[in-house]
């Protein structure tokens, strides 16, 4: 093989290696005009993810618990009306005055009808209404925290799906470039075989390596299609060539103890659990209120027509009714004990939530540190592998190395680049996982350009509604 040909082959291999390395270090660098950013993906998921929208609907449904509980302060009004036909026949005997009797038959037809209205207002029911309202409000606060947690999970899933696509594009680039390098290696091996510098075994080894690389390209394309399908499921749209993800390191806590402390104080899963404890505790008081006296004020107005011998009857009443429960069969006592056990369960669930969040923080922190170390090691490995590959190629030219040695070293370099790509993807995903574990993964923290969903809007719209079947959005 001539010196000029060897020089050309070496320049081509180095050029392709540089291209592949650039793709790895940038984790699939910027694409074309249709490329998407991680921020746009997160914004799209925030607004259109069905799981998140379903959770928002759940919060709106829970909002209705407050007006339902407030109904205990409001009167109950009912109206009645009736109309009918009544016919009576009376058969009897009357005295004639001379010791005799006369038989008679009397038939009477009436049309009884009437209308009335009744009003009942509770004045005291053992504080059941007050405690029911407070319990409902705690449920709403818990539902909002659950919504915050769902928002975190959706944003994390979207970030992970985006980074998976980014990773798979980069790996596909590296493997395609590897095919080009191996094609040049095979071409060079065949030329050297023709001049007797290598054996048929060398060309067969180069051919086998090339076919293996092509198989890896097919596998990378399949994996990319899978990741793109997952992305569409979460975000709601197809993705083209993604752009490099922006780092969120500036949003991360500075130390592990700080991250743990913040998570225990503000993670939505923990706060939702404690709101559940409050609601369950108040429910105990609601049940116990059934054992206390209740006082109701009842008023009614009624008018009857064609009743008995009167043409019409008008009646009205105002009654104060005090009810003192004495024994109701033991069901209320059982419900109170049940409510206490439920409250105890909620307290234990809150402890479980705190432990789970702490574990998630420690795990995410370790993943961030581990991925950072892997990036540094992989970068050093790439540099060393590239140097080794250049040396093996030079030695192969003078017969000190075989084609297999060159191919093995090329594979080592490929593996190092793929390791770097995966480590960089893991570093970004771990950063988002840490934000989520602390409770900071939100549209506000990330600065997403989206219309924020405010649960207070719907709550204010329905809290004091006395009547109406339609929801605030017109359904």
From TrEMBL:
Instruction: Name the Pfam families for this protein.
Output: OEP
Coarse class of the primary localization is membrane
Q: Which PROSITE patterns match?
A: TAT
User: Which regions form coiled coils?
Assistant: 133-223
Q: Which UniProt keywords apply?
A: Cell outer membrane, Coiled coil, Membrane, Signal, Transmembrane, Transmembrane beta strand, Transport
Which InterPro entries does UniProt cross-reference here?
Answer: OMP_efflux, T1SS_OMP_TolC, TAT_signal, TolC-like
**Record's signal peptide:** 1-35
| A single GO cellular-component term on record | efflux pump complex
UniProt subcellular location = Cell outer membrane
GO MF, one term, reads: porin activity
Concerning its family, UniProt says:
Belongs to the outer membrane factor (OMF) (TC 1.B.17) family.
What name goes with this protein?
Channel protein TolC
Q: Which organism is it from?
A: Methylopila jiangsuensis
Organismal lineage = Bacteria, Pseudomonadati, Pseudomonadota, Alphaproteobacteria, Hyphomicrobiales
């Amino acid at each position: 093989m001539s010196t000029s040909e060897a020089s050309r082959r070496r320049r081509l291999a180095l050029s392709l290696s540089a291209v592949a390395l650039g793709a790895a270090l940038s984790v699939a660098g910027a694409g074309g005009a249709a490329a998407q950013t991680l921020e746009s993906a997160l914004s799209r998921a925030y607004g259109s993810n069905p799981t998140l929208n379903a959770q928002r609907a759940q919060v709106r449904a829970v909002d209705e618990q407050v007006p339902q509980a407030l109904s205990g302060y409001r009167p109950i009004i009912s109206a009645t009306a009736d109309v009918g036909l009544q016919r009576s026949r009376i058969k009897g005997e009357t005295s004639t005055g001379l010791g005799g009797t006369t038989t008679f038959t009397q038939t009477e037809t009436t049309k009884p009808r009437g209308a009335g209205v009744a009003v009942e207002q509770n004045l005291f029911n053992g504080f059941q209404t007050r405690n029911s309202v407070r319990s409902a409000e705690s449920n709403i606060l818990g539902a909002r925290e659950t919504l915050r947690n769902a928002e975190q999970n959706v944003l994390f899933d979207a970030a992970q799906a985006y980074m998976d696509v980014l990773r798979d594009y980069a790996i596909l680039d590296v493997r395609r470039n590897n095919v080009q390098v191996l094609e040049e290696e095979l071409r060079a091996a065949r030329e050297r075989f023709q001049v007797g510098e290598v054996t048929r075994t060398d060309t067969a080894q180069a051919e086998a390596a090339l076919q293996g690389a092509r198989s890896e390209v097919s596998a990378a394309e399949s994996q990319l299609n899978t990741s793109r399908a997952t992305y569409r499921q979460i975000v709601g749209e197809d993705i083209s060539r993604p752009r490099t993800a922006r780092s969120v390191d500036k949003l991360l806590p500075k130390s592990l103890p700080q991250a743990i402390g913040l998570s225990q104080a503000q993670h939505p899963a923990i706060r939702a659990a404690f709101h559940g404890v409050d609601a369950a505790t108040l429910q105990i008081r609601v049940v116990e209120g059934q054992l206390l006296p209740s006082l109701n004020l009842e008023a009614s107005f009624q008018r009857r027509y064609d009743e008995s011998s009167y043409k019409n009857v008008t009646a009205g009443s105002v009654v104060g009714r005090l009810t003192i429960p004495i024994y109701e069969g033991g069901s209320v006592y059982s419900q109170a004990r049940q409510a206490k056990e439920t409250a105890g369960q909620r307290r234990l669930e809150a402890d479980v939530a705190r432990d789970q969040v702490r574990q998630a923080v420690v795990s995410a922190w370790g993943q961030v540190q581990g991925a950072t170390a892997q990036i540094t090691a992989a970068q050093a490995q790439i540099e060393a592998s590239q140097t080794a590959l250049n040396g093996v190629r030079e030695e192969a030219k003078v017969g000190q190395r075989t084609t297999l040695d060159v191919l093995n070293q090329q594979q080592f370099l490929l593996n190092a680049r793929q390791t770097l790509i995966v480590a960089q993807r893991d570093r970004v995903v771990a950063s988002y996982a840490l934000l989520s574990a602390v409770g900071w993964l939100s549209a506000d923290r990330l600065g997403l350009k989206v219309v924020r969903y405010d649960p207070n809007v719907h709550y204010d719209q329905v809290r004091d509604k006395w009547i109406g079947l339609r929801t605030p959005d017109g359904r």
